[in-house]
Amino acid sequence: MPITPTAKIWMDGELVDWDKATVHVLTHSLHYGMGVFEGIRAYPTANGPAIFRLRDHVRRMFRGTRILQMDLPYSEDAVCEAIKLTVTENGLESCYIRPLAYLGYGEMGMNPIACKVRLSIAVWPWGAYLGDEAMRTGIRLKVSSWARNDPRSVPTAAKCSGLYVNSSLAKLEAARAGYDEALMCTTSGLISEGTGENVFVVRGGSLYTPPPSGAGSLEGITADTVATFARDLGHTVTEREMRRTDLYMADEAFLTGTAAEVVPIGSVDDRLVGTGEPGPITREIQDLYNATVRGTVDRYKDWLDYAT
Description:
single chain, alpha+beta, D-amino Acid Aminotransferase, Chain A, domain 1, D-amino Acid Aminotransferase, Chain A, domain 2, nine-stranded mixed sheet, 17 strands
């Protein structure tokens, strides 16, 4: 989906013009992928733009930088305030927010110690990541031939820039084959996640999702939100190892992610999931998510941080 430029990007404590938010071609992270990013959304509400689960996203980013031994020169509070400022200064009622911690220009080579840790925050208007039609009717999913990164080789618990080569290859393969999205499995054939989303399977009224520790998937904040919704609605949610056949036999299935939000899965490898239409539990959760992020559900208002 194309990016619509906005007025300002926050870089290392200053708001700079969009076109001037540049880095040197020898920036360390550009060559070696040592960076940690987040995807966050702000939504329009009756009280102005509200950032959904801002603190949880920033905490996760700090956990990721700790894993990579990148010492951010800011506190969590300072980053939260910088994100709010960037949203406000760009005058956006709703937007996607991309903070990125990266290693700047310094020395070239595998040892990153001499490279300064930098931080940028960009915001821009962004619609449904997989498209409005996908939100209504569901997506066509393909199990990728590319295995998910193995947590014994790289830290899959970190939202690390370089690790997403894995996801991009899977996405490209699926798109060229005519599918909307790819599902990635571990090298032993266990379901992990989509290219940027967690996965839920519904069977017999209960929800199942892969355990991040075993599947190498990211601990999703939207996935946690959905699990909370499901339990509050009276459904059982279980972390369980699954294989692709669990999706083939599912009554319903859906993906979750900040960019993707809650997206029904209509088919997997050309096999219909259930009837092929979004199921009642998927719709129930999708509707509650859409209402919550827009500030109309009192029970979850603590998850909203107002930018103004």
